[in-house]
Amino acid sequence: MTSETVDAFHFGRFHVVQPATGGHRSGMDAMLLAAMVAGEGDLKIADLGAGAGAAGLAVASRLPRAKVALIERSPEMAGFARKSLVLPENEHVASRVSVIEADVTLKGRARVAAGLEDEVFDHVIMNPPFNAAADRRTPDALKADAHAMTEGLFESWIRTAGAILKPGGQLSLIARPESIADIIAACGQRFGGLEVTLIHPREGEPAIRLLVSAVKGSRARLAFRAPFTMHEEGTHRFAAFIDDLNNGRAAYARAGRKGKPV
Fold first, then answer.
1. For residue 239, is pLDDT > 80?
2. Cα 3 from chain centre
3. What's the whole-number mean pLDDT along residues 115-119?
């Protein structure tokens, strides 16, 4: 059996049960991804490849009327998400969060039969595996499955996002910068209005992550937003806005909709 930990996020506003050593442990990537969901009201959000559910739970914790589906194909990781939902610390979000054990890459009737119906969600978020398949060196099968990219991954995941989103719904994802060409190609005719934000660890250092948002059916042009720098000069402290995003005090809304982050 995989040992586990219970970890606090957003200064203890919600907790996540995660594998202690094996599998994927969520951190800042999940919190930045969750911050890309901005809005009010009864939003329906799907977290594709949710793992233990950290990103989806972060959305549900910050937006009090949002309903979130955690979609995960690994029975073990889905089990961690279900454990998170019964924690007393998560009582305020549990009724608005569900777990769907399904393969994100399913198509057509098989996808619908697995619980991923057409045009249901207002927002889809995803943090796909980002390591090249050749880099799958870990002996931990659960971690390898969560981290290793397969051929056509962005095409299959973004295809599913396009199917389950309502017209005009938003896709948001976090990935490595070298994936940008695959992401743009996968969006194809499904999504437009792509907004890309590069994330640099420090001034003058290469970007290590990018945030991408897009709108289903939009014909707006690709836009690159002002990049983020994670750490203050000469320190290990997070820059103020990054710290706000990481801890649920702010959202990173689309520039095309809001005009600026909120």
1. yes
2. 24
3. 98
